[in-house]
Amino acid sequence: MPFEFTVHPIRWDRCPLVASDPHAQAWLLLQSHRGLSSNTLDAYSRASERYLAFLKSACIASVSATRADVGLYLAALQAGEVALANATIQQLLTVVRLFHGYLMEEGTRSNNPAAQTGSGRAMVARQQKLPWIPNEEDWHRILAAARQESIRNRTMLAFAYDAGLRREELCSLQSSDIDPSRRILRIRTESTKGRRERALPYSASSGELLGRYLVHRRTLGSKRGPLFLSESHRNYTEPISIWSWSKIVLHLARRAGVERFSTHTLRHLCLTDLAHSGWDIHEIATFAGHRSVQTTLLYIHLSGRDLSLKLAAGMAQLHARRVQMLAEVAQ
């Protein structure tokens, strides 16, 4: 199967400071020509714009920014009215590091002020929290709220869990990616975070929902292409965007009274269930499209599988020891 390489356009109107800075503009163009997804490219442009806005307010040129300047930028991020998650700050810092790394490669500056130190310590310590998954009560409330959704939304929810799909992978599905006869869906390289194509099975119940949705989809248009279509007046029959899908899930979560439920929750839940069912860590990593099993380990930990096995083994030994002690007392 040929590799599908797409160069996505940059929305320069959303990052005017980047567009006006020759170095930042050249760096962002390079990222576009690397074939990054439109969402990644958009995230890079927004992060670059944010960094350049800080440098402009402090009258600092990107070619002369020091490690102390980057530190002030990080402090400004954390001092904002809206508290940023550690993962968000890590993403913003990554863009700064990549940008300055590019300036070094071009010979514009001699060092990277955002790089790790010689000891390997990062500027911001990475906090790794276990992802949240709903308990049984939350899950039933989510299901009750989902019953009120359209057939398209219910099908998307089913696929998001069944195949453990990321938001972009779900919204980027094409009609040609589905093989109903074998109940297999194809996740294309350009829509994945790890740039790894994979083929995933889906259940019979998801297949039934898909069949009902396809009947409905034919009323919107007969042409093949994006699987999940928008039905809003503004974007009628256009592919549903990740932002629209996020809003749908947000409204569902509010109706269910489970505010922490998000587009990524079903992926977390799926992978945790696979770990709990005894899947090997490498099998889960392949299914999820993880580049590193270190990411997959989160779901092994979250399932409590290893701890449960150790607890069961420990309790069995303790029980046997107590029985032996009682037997000795009875003699």
From TrEMBL:
<dbReference type="InterPro" id="IPR004107">
    <property type="entry name" value="Integrase_SAM-like_N"/>
</dbReference>
<dbReference type="InterPro" id="IPR050090">
    <property type="entry name" value="Tyrosine_recombinase_XerCD"/>
</dbReference>
<protein>
    <submittedName>
        <fullName>Site-specific recombinase XerD</fullName>
    </submittedName>
</protein>
<dbReference type="InterPro" id="IPR002104">
    <property type="entry name" value="Integrase_catalytic"/>
</dbReference>
<dbReference type="InterPro" id="IPR010998">
    <property type="entry name" value="Integrase_recombinase_N"/>
</dbReference>
<keyword id="KW-0233">DNA recombination</keyword>
<keyword id="KW-0229">DNA integration</keyword>
<feature type="domain" description="Core-binding (CB)">
    <location>
        <begin position="18"/>
        <end position="104"/>
    </location>
</feature>
<feature type="domain" description="Tyr recombinase">
    <location>
        <begin position="129"/>
        <end position="312"/>
    </location>
</feature>
<dbReference type="GO" id="GO:0015074">
    <property type="term" value="P:DNA integration"/>
</dbReference>
<keyword id="KW-0159">Chromosome partition</keyword>
<dbReference type="GO" id="GO:0003677">
    <property type="term" value="F:DNA binding"/>
</dbReference>
<dbReference type="GO" id="GO:0007059">
    <property type="term" value="P:chromosome segregation"/>
</dbReference>
<dbReference type="InterPro" id="IPR044068">
    <property type="entry name" value="CB"/>
</dbReference>
<dbReference type="Pfam" id="PF00589">
    <property type="entry name" value="Phage_integrase"/>
</dbReference>
<dbReference type="InterPro" id="IPR013762">
    <property type="entry name" value="Integrase-like_cat_sf"/>
</dbReference>
<dbReference type="Pfam" id="PF02899">
    <property type="entry name" value="Phage_int_SAM_1"/>
</dbReference>
<keyword id="KW-0238">DNA-binding</keyword>
<dbReference type="InterPro" id="IPR011010">
    <property type="entry name" value="DNA_brk_join_enz"/>
</dbReference>
<dbReference type="GO" id="GO:0006310">
    <property type="term" value="P:DNA recombination"/>
</dbReference>
